[in-house]
Amino acid sequence: MLAARSALARLGDREIVVVGRTAAAARRTRLERAAIVVSWLGNGTIYLILAGLLVIFAGRASMRTLALAALCGAVSHLVYPAIKRVAARPRPFEHRAGPRASAVPLDAFSFPSGHLMTLAATVTPVLLRWPRLWLVAAGLWLVLAWSRLATAHHYPSDLLGGTLLGVAVALAVVGLAG
Exposed site from 42, 72, 122, 137, fewest CB < 10 Å? Predict the structure, then answer.
């Protein structure tokens, strides 16, 4: 475990430049507030909005998929806090060369991104049912990922790790659900 933490620290030393540039660009272009709002939506509100839109556009056909998406999101919320405690990766704003945080994070550690893990976990069953929505899902991912960098809450590898873990959780849950 110590080797993994050390590897994450070395990776953070390389990635801090990307986080710093993204956060600085958000402040310079007055998009910092947008990043904070998007991050806040990713705390849970976005899922209610997306579920409502899916019901509006797909009606009763969406119910099983919505139930699976909710289950996948719940499982990801059970999994990611444990991974964060084990990885114990400090957030980019705590890095010696890190930018300041734009908002207070929900928890102490950076890896993996719980926001991206939850998004990937909940969107995967929807994409399995309606693959034509991949562009919408990719847009949501990009905006949420940008917001997590712009608020200096995550490194790029946290976002990738969270996404991959979320997809893995969703595929396991969907597979078990049959």
Answer: 137
Q: Which two tokens stand for residue 110?
A: 């950076």
User: What single-letter amino acid sits at 49?
Assistant: I
pLDDT score recorded for residue 95: 84
Alpha helices for 59-155 (secondary structure H) = 63-87, 114-129, 134-150
Give which of 155, 161, 176, 1 is closest to 90, Cα–Cα: 155
Q: For 97-111, how does the pLDDT look when each residue is reduced to its tens digit (9 = 90+)?
A: 778 777 888 888 999
Other residues' Cβ atoms within 10 Å of the Cβ of residue 68: 20
Q: What are phi and psi of 152, to 5 degrees?
A: 60, 30
Q: Are 109 and 87 in contact (CB under 8 A)?
A: yes
User: How far is residue 133's CA from residue 94's CA, in Å, rounded to a whole number?
Assistant: 37
Per-residue pLDDT tens digits for 127-152: 999 999 999 999 999 999 999 999 99
The tokens describing 115, both together, are: 């926001």
CB of 151 within 8 A of CB of 23?
yes
With a cut of 90, say whether residue 121 has pLDDT above it: yes
Residue with tokens 């997306």: 50
Q: Which residues of 114-130 are buried (b: 16+ CB within 10 A; e: fewer)?
A: bbbbbbbbbbbbbbebb
Whether this model's pTM surpasses 0.85: yes
